[in-house]
């Protein structure tokens, strides 16, 4: 097991190099002096900052050499300074990551709580009206464009009914503290969390259903029934434990989406997480931040697959990596 | 010619539509029945012979598929006496497994359903006889595993991969003897494992199924089936997936155990050798029907039905110089919408004129030996003989 | 004599078999597919959408970029083509017919720039569907080839391709698109070329998923007993690939492609909504919804932003329904 993890980490590092090189190359491949082109519209950026940027990305060197000079800094944790925030990129990411996590994490827990039971229910009642309804609703959910759904929710619940705030994380100028602040934030989170849950629940639900169906046809489920185990226990214990294996893997893999922030939803609801920061960064040509942000997501993705693999070994006794 | 094909195409389409409508109706009825509460009086019945543990009476188990209704078991009747071993023999697809799954009520609904007939079970623990086909699921769950246990065909997939052997063994004991303490349950598990010939029972208790060999797993499956002292053990080809040396061991084991706990065994197999070794009574099935049944001696020494004769002839025999092993010509007919005549007719060497008529009635050769074949029908008895 | 009986029996058997309903595998798949009501709903929606987007534009006299002008006093309406022929004084009498309400001339009114919403809906759908198909074709070509090679050859080749897949998997799509877009806009790439660039990037970034799936399938097929049986009979590589591997991989590719068509359309609309996908003057369902960012439009002009949203929802949902139906239909383990 230990050996397997070490090998996986080594591979991940290799892949990370590949990703970073690719990202670097995309910036480098742009013809002309890309830095001055992107930053030309921004009066805040001084000639000195541009010089720093050129040095950071090693634009004065060849592509390979330049990459290594950039990578050397990056390994030491120096991803440059964000133009917009005038802070190191790592700090900007670290600060805003938790806001995104609060939002995505809440939505994620809700998703698990709704999708798994419904998926199991749909599977046990395959071809029934319940099954059709659950699948249809789940598929409709993943087909909804989040920006459109968010707009509809805002139009109905914020503009028309006034039940929830239009945007933001806290009521401005209210200076709330403690529980009141928490409730205020929760109130602001209702609509964005709804968008998250509705637009992404379908994937997990359908996955649960498919796996459950497969497991329900397995011989060991028949064995359990033959032992006299009640139907509820057959599904809840014998079948579900086996369905859990692929689900856990999928959950492990959703790590990046928990921290990386959702550009669209955060943008629409003006929630000050990583997603919105990234959107701002585009509008202001904040290249160091975007590079750093992309690297951050890449690392999360790799970490996610690693965690998924380890969890897989934990829940499935057949898998013992040697 | 083309008109003709168009015609058949059309009728085929219509036929499919018919099937679809019919199946939808059957499925609806099935779901409705599942929800219905069944009063006890509905499934209490009388045994025909109090010495029998199980009586199949004209059992019909159908599969309602897209291509039509498959009558996998069509009017099967035979008895399992107390403490005896009954071997059910037939080719693949003859309905022997479906018969056994019907006893346990484990047919995959809504396609597979018991369409008619009775399976009477002598429930001595409650001093009554019940019809298993009509029993509600919660009552059935008390019988499954406790009074009737089943040993499945595939040891490799019959155990749940995510639970330890101990977990799975103790599950049915805990379920059926809720008063037992944890230590007692574990002791019982270990005892069962030792009984089926597992030497390091304590060590294996915490192992996962994938860590064991096929033979070991089959022993565990048997231990599981025996753990609650069942009255009837249904062994569905318990040795097919194992290699020959293990096969012999497992069979020895079964025979020994049967005597120890004084249970009946319904042994399902296509291997006549296994039956000869194990069974007191033999039932020969062909295409969803019983074609011949009798004591092992009667079947092996005085086979009547041409199919049985064929089966016995196709068995390799030691110390005999046979040029080529006999094989019954032809194949089992397509099970969808079977004809009403004797299904074996097309493969039968002794086929006669009357074989194209209706299905032959059951003829008693001796009180225990019955056969369904026109060869043995007395002209006077006609078709009313038998049931 | 016995032979005779055997023969007549065989004939009878034939007649008996013919009267039975026997379904070929393809028939079974179709049957299972058409029993799925959701799949049929999806199919119908797709058909209607295709007609709407590809035939619709021929039935309207309005162009995609046509701006409508309204006479300040009479309210008479002219199209931009007529407007450009007018003299300066006459032009002064006209103003743009912005955010016109639903009327006979404009089934869904006009948008914030005075263009007919209904017409743009058709063109928007046309381009969304086209982008979807192109991207899926690109990702399939790349993914099936790479995945096929990795799965078939295994070993080092597999190792290298799979690392490549992982690298592509780790590239965050939306942030990358944002960078690319800011670069292209800085370099002033024309919108017509941007479409192609967009399709290419989306296709290239999506191939990893297809490759992973195809490789997995081929690897598991190679382990199958029947494959080993075929190999032991010494069949040629050509036969092995085209007779055994491809027919077994095609179903999951079809399912994946159908589902991906939906998700690509969704992604494209998101990009267009953010203003980094298809941009002015092209109509796209995504950039039509972009109007919702104006709070006046969001509150008072539902006719401008709701219809494109519903179009996206219906189309993507239809692809998902059909894909899901196909998946169930292809799966032989699905009983009934």
Please supply descriptive tags for the structure shown above.
heterotrimer; A: 322 residues; mainly alpha; MetI-like fold; 2 domains; 14 helices; 75% helix; globular; C: 336 residues; three-stranded antiparallel beta sheet; 3 strands; 73% helix; elongated; disordered N terminus
* SSE string of chain B, helices as H and strands as E: HEEEEHEEHEHHHHEHEHEEHHEE
Percent strand of chain B: 15-25%
Biggest interface, and residues per chain?
A: A-C, 55 and 48 residues
Class of secondary structure makeup of chain A: mainly alpha
> Major beta sheet of chain A, specifics?
none
> Could you report the average pLDDT of chain A, rounded to the nearest whole number?
81
Radius of gyration of chain B: 23 Å
Terminal CA distance of chain B: 47 Å
CATH class term of the largest domain in chain A = Mainly Alpha
Strand content of chain A: under 5%
Query: Which strand order spans the largest sheet of chain B, edge to edge or round the barrel?
Result: 7-8-9-4-10-11-13-12
Please give the number of β-strands of chain A. Answer: 0
Characterise the protein shown here.
The complex is a heterotrimer of chains A (322), B (387) and C (336). Chain A has 14 helices and no strands. With 322 residues, chain A is mostly helical. In chain A, helix 1 runs antiparallel to helix 14 (287-315), helix 7 crosses helix 8 (178-216) and helix 9 (219-226) packs antiparallel against helix 10 (231-252). Chain A starts with a helix and ends in a 7-residue tail after the last helix. The model of chain A has no long low-confidence stretch (mean pLDDT 81). By secondary structure, chain B is of the alpha/beta class. Chain B has a domain at 304-385. Chain B has helices spanning 2-35, 96-104, 137-143, 165-176, 182-195, 201-205, 214-226, 244-261, 272-278, 296-301, 306-313; strands at 44-45, 52-65, 68-81, 85-89, 112-123, 128-131, 148-151, 232-236, 264-269, 281-286, 289-295, 363-364, 370-371. In chain B, strands 7-8-9-4-10-11-13-12 form an eight-stranded mixed beta sheet, with helices on both faces. In chain B, strands 1-6-5-2-3 form a five-stranded antiparallel beta sheet. Chain B is globular. Chain C folds into two domains: 67-115, no CATH class; 123-334, MetI-like fold. Chain C has 14 helices and three strands. Chain C starts with a helix and ends in a 6-residue tail after the last helix. Mean pLDDT of chain C is 79; it is low at 1-6 and 13-19. At the A-C interface, helix 1, helix 2, helix 6, helix 7 and helix 13 of A face helix 7, helix 8, helix 11 and helix 14 of C.
